[in-house]
Write a sequence for this structure.
């Protein structure tokens, strides 16, 4: 499928999700020379499409995040967002976050992302609810837009989003605080969210940010052991592949030596290391 909006010619390259009220596709802009991709939400439910049009057009001057354009195409309503590389927090948390200080810094970063992105709260709520939370290589937080719009509710407010954000942050602080015996060390930030997020919740993202900022431990430079552990975590797939290749090579060498032993009675390669200097030129060293 090809869509044209303004100067963009959007060629569908991948279907990410197909749902009851919307689909999510990745498109490439064929109107530019370099490869530029967008995440496109294709809404085919007319009632929902009208709600979204009212929501986005009412906030058009305020939406500051990755929202690019929206348009109608035949019987569908499409919302175009900048494509972001997917690095889901659930998959990369353990390899990227090693200390409580780093975890608290990421939580602050996520709170600021939610606070500053300008996405309408009903959409932001779905992003958090459906774990569209990603972590960059420099440990910054960003949100994805591959969302199912079926549970959309225009009644969601900042309080709903801030409380849900706190509920997403809370297990991260608990996970990073796990001791060797499986006991949670009661970090101040962990206790603060434990006491508040499950009771009255948070009315604003600024309240959540202030609590995390106040309770966060100072960020210290990692020791050599921590850096070595992080290096192996970050490159564990590459290290595994190299070890696998080495094992295959060694296995092939062993097989060749066995076959040579059966055919020649010895291994020709090993002759290089046996009685190598018995004779130099015409002179024998054994006399």
């Amino acid at each position: 499928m090809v869509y044209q909006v303004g100067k963009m010619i959007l060629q569908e390259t991948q279907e990410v999700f197909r749902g009851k009220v919307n689909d999510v596709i990745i498109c490439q802009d064929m109107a530019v020379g370099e490869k530029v991709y967008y995440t496109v939400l294709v809404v085919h439910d007319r009632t929902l499409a009208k709600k979204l049009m009212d929501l986005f057009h009412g906030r058009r001057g305020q939406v500051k995040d990755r929202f690019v354009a929206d348009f109608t195409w035949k019987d569908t309503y499409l919302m175009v967002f900048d494509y972001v590389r997917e690095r889901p927090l659930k998959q990369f948390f353990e390899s990227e976050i090693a200390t409580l200080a780093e975890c608290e810094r990421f939580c602050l970063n996520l709170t600021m992302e939610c606070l500053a992105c300008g996405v309408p709260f009903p959409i932001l709520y779905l992003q958090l609810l459906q774990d569209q939370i990603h972590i960059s290589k420099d440990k910054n937080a960003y949100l994805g837009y591959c969302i199912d719009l079926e549970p959309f509710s225009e009644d969601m407010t900042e309080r709903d989003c801030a409380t849900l954000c706190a509920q997403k942050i809370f297990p991260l602080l608990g996970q990073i605080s796990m001791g060797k015996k499986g006991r949670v060390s009661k970090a101040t930030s962990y206790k603060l969210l434990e006491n508040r997020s499950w009771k009255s919740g948070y009315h604003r993202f600024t309240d959540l940010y202030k609590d995390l900022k106040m309770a966060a431990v100072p960020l210290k430079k990692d020791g050599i052991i921590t850096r070595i552990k992080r290096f192996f975590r970050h490159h564990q797939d590459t290290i595994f592949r190299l070890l696998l290749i080495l094992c295959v090579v060694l296995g092939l060498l062993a097989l060749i030596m066995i076959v040579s032993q059966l055919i020649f009675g010895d291994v020709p390669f090993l002759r290089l290391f046996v009685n190598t200097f018995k004779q130099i030129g015409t002179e024998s060293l054994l006399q």
About this structure: The CA atoms of residues 15 and 25 lie 4 Å apart. Residues 2-82 form a domain with the Phosphorylase Kinase; domain 1 fold (CATH 3.30.200.20).
